[in-house]
Design a protein that fits this description.
mainly alpha
């Protein structure tokens, strides 16, 4: 019975520590994201893409695309500002564990198994900005698909920072019906290379 009690106490203690660590991370990220309208702009884009793809009138569809281009540019500007703001944090507060599951304070206990969220958010900013500018002249539908992938991968990083990789991937699959590997495949090659190099090759899709 003493062993069972000890194990129970250890499990409860780990749960409390994990909850505190996650609450700290959620508050930290939220305090920075809350200054911007990134989430609202993402929702507007997602809804706008769906509405545009369902529009039969070519003239009306072209008008919607132009409005969405403005929203994309605004989102890219806002996210760049967030990244600049977030980059001022100390590295000790922005390390993210590569472990699949949440281990309390794993970023402090196993620093070699972490990556810097400031750097990965900078990669996302470049991908989002490039998609917004569409310098390669992709067709609107193709560029919308790319922008969505860039935004969803950024969203995955937010959830990973606050919870764990497993939780982030599960939420992505539930919300967008897209697996983590599919998401990485869908972003721009430049984003994929930089992202996979930062988080570690073992976290990239098997074909990488």
């Amino acid at each position: 019975m003493e062993i069972l009690t000890l194990v129970t106490l250890i499990v409860i203690g780990a749960y409390i520590l994990r909850a505190r660590d996650q609450s700290r991370r959620i508050a930290l990220l939220g305090s920075h994201l809350g200054k911007y309208q990134i989430e609202r702009l993402m929702e507007s884009l997602t809804e706008g893409y769906l509405r545009c793809l369902g529009e039969d009138d070519p003239e009306r569809r072209a008008q919607i695309w132009r409005l969405l281009n403005t929203t994309e540019e605004a989102l890219a500007t806002q996210f760049n500002s967030f990244v600049a703001d977030f980059s001022r944090l100390a590295e000790a507060d922005t390390r993210v564990s590569r472990l699949a599951v949440a281990v309390p304070y794993a970023d402090r206990l196993f620093p070699a198994l972490t990556f810097d969220a400031r750097r990965v958010f900078a990669i996302h900013a470049q991908g989002i900005d490039s998609a917004a500018k569409n310098s390669l002249g992709r067709p609107p539908k193709s560029n919308a698909f790319l922008m969505s992938a860039e935004l969803f991968l950024m969203q995955h990083t937010c959830h990973w920072f606050c919870r764990s990789k497993t939780v982030a991937s599960a939420r992505m699959l539930a919300r967008h019906k897209t697996s983590y590997a599919q998401l990485i495949d869908a972003v721009a090659p430049e984003t994929r290379r930089a992202y996979c190099a930062l988080i570690g090759a073992h976290d990239a899709p098997s074909r990488m």
